[in-house]
Amino acid sequence: MYYGYLSVIKMIETSLEFEKDAVRIYNEFAEKAHDPQLKEMFVEFAKAETGHVNGLQKLIQSIRDGEHEVKFYCPVCGWEVNFGKTPNVKDHARCRMCGVIFELIEIGGDYDIKRL
């Protein structure tokens, strides 16, 4: 399901749980606050964290749906090396800045690249 994204998905899911907890906590603080400015601050924090929750959920969904592009920073020049949305291990991509060619590999459930 998440082939090539094992570590990424674990990190996103951990972040997602943290963000959901933050929304709950900030909402609780807002409910208990007596000062209107403090209440509004906690409401704004909860809204911001809700945006984070939504963004992380969309990212997971884009990976699940095969809509997330597999990209790496070129270890030679730092430019983006893009393997597209549905690459296969052993696909090649050339860095558009320095011209070095990389092969997409898999290590322990995660995509990685190898210089050719």
List the helices and strands and how they pair.
Blueprint: H1 6-32, H2 36-64, E1 71-73, E2 80-82, E3 92-94, E4 101-107, E5 110-115
Antiparallel strand pairs: 1-2, 3-4, 4-5
Q: What does the model show?
A:
With about 120 residues, the chain is an alpha+beta fold. Helix content is about 50%, strand content about 20%. It is built from two helices and five strands, in the order H-H-E-E-E-E-E. Strands 3-4-5 form a three-stranded antiparallel β-sheet. A hairpin with a 2-residue loop joins strand 4 and strand 5. Helix 1 packs antiparallel against helix 2. The longest helix has 29 residues. It is elongated and about 65 Å long. The relative contact order is 0.16. The model has no long low-confidence stretch (mean pLDDT about 95).
Q: Mind describing the biggest β-sheet?
A: 3 strands, antiparallel
What is the gyration radius calculated from CA atoms? 20 Å
Widest sheet, order of strands: 3-4-5
Number of strands: 5
What is this structure, in a nutshell?
The protein has 116 residues and is α+β, with helices and mostly antiparallel strands. It has 2 helices and 5 strands. The mean pLDDT is 96.
List its traits.
116 residues; alpha+beta; three-stranded antiparallel β-sheet; two-stranded antiparallel sheet; 5 strands
